[in-house]
Amino acid sequence: MSPLLEVRGLAKHFPVGAPRLFGGARGVLRAVDGVSFELARGESLGLVGESGCGKSTVARTLVGLYPATAGTITFDGIELTKLTHRARAPFRRRIQMIFQDPYASLDPRQTVASILMEPLRIHRLGKPRTRRLRAMALLDAVGLNPRHLYHYPHEFSGGQRQRIGIARALALEPELIVCDEPVSALDVSIQAQIVNLLRELQERFGLAYLFIAHDLAVVRHISQRIAVMYLGRIVEVAERDALFAHPRHPYTQALLSAIPEPDPERERTRERIVLEGDVPSPLTPPTGCAFHPRCFARDRVEGDRCRLERPTLEKGLACHLHDTESHHFYPVSFARPDAKRRS
Amino acid sequence: MSAPVLDVRGLEVTFRTDHGLVRAVDGVSFALEAGETLGLVGESGSGKSVTNLALMGLVPSPPGDVRAERILVAGHDLAALTPRALQRVRGRDVAMIFQDPMTSLNPLLTVGRQLTEGLEVHGLARGKDARRRAAAGLGEVGIPEPETRLRQYPHELSGGMRQRVMIAMALLCEPKVLLADEPTTALDVTIQAQILELLRALQRRHGTAIVLVTHDLGVVAGMANRVQVMYGGRLVETAPAPALFRTPRHPYTAGLLGSVPRLTGDTAARLVSIPGQPPDLARLPEGCAFQPRCTLAVARCERERPTLDVVGPSGPTRDTVGPSGSARDTIRADGAHRSACFEHARVRPAEVAREARR
């Protein structure tokens, strides 16, 4: 069966700086620079990475908020990137989005009823009366009291607002929901409520999720497969359990080892890869492998390959170490022997 | 036992608001020795940040009102100090780092000017000498080319660099107490790992006492000797870190630990979430503030407010600092495991709760 969503070589570049007189070249920010993945019906794919890696840009390009600079997005066999804005309308119904900030993503002057009925009105689904019933059913589905239909967003807490955002995304019975950091603005105890709710809804409605987050532990609880991004590209993609047990890319290994765990004994004994330096700017990405200036394993690759040649994503890994025999797997709790250790 | 560098008894902070009197901090006490780290944990609105602001004398009045039996910082009684004298203690004996380095650094001044200002105000160094010490301070927090950085403005630095500058600034006058309010929350995990590593190293070198305010239980687990959990402005549990994580004795702490998604273990089970919403500080319920969300609540919890009572032995409090083996196990007088819950004996650790649910 063909995948629900297929993304090939997706790129989104932003021009930066003032336009030059006589059309001189402006700077280019390569937010997303050749991303490929697919997503089956009912599957959830986690997309993780640190700020500026381009994961939110991928989300916005998928739902059509940004036009793609290059590459293709194919949804249910139709290449969306070829369609006009008007021809794309029915697909906007089938792909919905949940945003990070439950304060900024709801119009403060609209009632919950109006927020939930607006997408139905735009897509001409149902009559006003049935729309109201639908709005009440949606509130019930996300665990809110349908009696709150005529309340305004400010009357709800952050977690409840996020539930309203989820109800709005569900209104059009989408097949795919792009969740852009849906829990990172919430308190821990509320995060767990929302993660549980998203899992329930997925089972109930057979939804596919592209779940974008910087928190790998959250992603682990909601994704079957996980893709790790660094500076506009996917560096590793794997089944969830495989990724956590045997992270292959040096960046994935460092990322996993950097996550603090709520267990003092483990925190004290665990070895940690502490990366040096900062994430480079996507305005001036490093040559070759974008991770090489911070990579602790680059000396194990012969010659200057990491600095000169950009590794491609093959069999779920974009790393030159991939094809050398010296490549070993290290579970989360153990760093590579040559990694910088925490004293 | 040496004298504590920070000794707070019965801290209360109230704010007059349009919705009535808000008790942001209600009866918080703790003591901290040199070289110790205290984790102050809670969700938004729990009063953890306001506690820190009160210790710096930074709660605006009005609308705020700070009362305490005592707040001793490095031997100075904050309540007895004149504003001028407070100025001398603040920044010198006790310093603070904030969550967001972009809003707490002055965008109009160079890094160098902001660093040397503290030294000059406190009369520790001036001119070239101050500049030399500022550069050395930047070097100590792992900033390459400190001389160049001194001439730069905050916007020219990355987020991790700015946080390092703020730490350097806080540590320049070698304070005895460092109040860190969510110091790594705005940073990416790989940068967070660098900053936490740095804080640990600096603490080992200078014996600074750290109050670490955070909502991240993982960060606390790796940093704190003792942990205090706050809910609705009150302390609900305080314990040596290992005991708190292994055998939480307050249902809120257990719920919080269960809510944290883990890197290992079962993913088929639902996360243990705490039902309901955090409390409205202007309308706290009578009795226990957590009782409306609590699965263990009994009739008494609605009427009577539980006090923070000893529920377990005090443990070694120094065992998370330094490489294992070099740990100095000292039993603190108030290092005991305390919980403000009538039903504390029925509290089960999160893992157990999770098993039971399936």
Q: What does the model show?
A:
The complex is a heterodimer of chains A (about 350) and B (about 350). Chain A has eleven helices and ten strands. By secondary structure, chain A is α/β, with parallel strands linked by helices. Chain A has two domains: about 220 residues, P-loop containing nucleotide triphosphate hydrolases (Rossmann fold); about 80 residues, no CATH class. In chain A, strand 9 and strand 10 form a beta hairpin. By secondary structure, chain B is α/β, with parallel strands linked by helices. Chain B has two domains: about 270 residues, Rossmann fold (3-Layer(aba) Sandwich), CATH 3.40.50.300; about 70 residues, no CATH class. Chain B is about 30% helix and about 20% strand. In chain B, the strands form two sheets. In chain B, strands 7-8-9-3-10-11-13-12 form an eight-stranded mixed sheet, sandwiched between helices. In chain B, helix 5 packs across helix 7 and helix 7 packs parallel to helix 8. The relative contact order of chain B is 0.14. Chains A and B meet through helix 6, helix 7, helix 9 and helix 10 of A and helix 7, helix 8, helix 9, helix 10 and helix 11 of B.
* Domain module tally of chain A: 2
Strand content of chain B: 15-25%
Based on the coordinates given, report the CATH architecture of the largest domain in chain A.
3-Layer(aba) Sandwich
Span of the ends, CA to CA of chain B: 47 Å
Number of strands of chain B: 13
Largest β-sheet summary of chain A:
6 strands, mixed
Helix count of chain A? 11
The helix fraction of chain A, in percent, is 25-40%
The radius of gyration of chain A is 22 Å
The CATH topology of the largest domain in chain A is given as Rossmann fold
Low-confidence stretches of chain A at least 5 residues in length (pLDDT < 50)? 324-343
Just name the CATH architecture of the largest domain in chain B.
Answer: 3-Layer(aba) Sandwich
CATH fold-level label of the largest domain in chain B: Rossmann fold
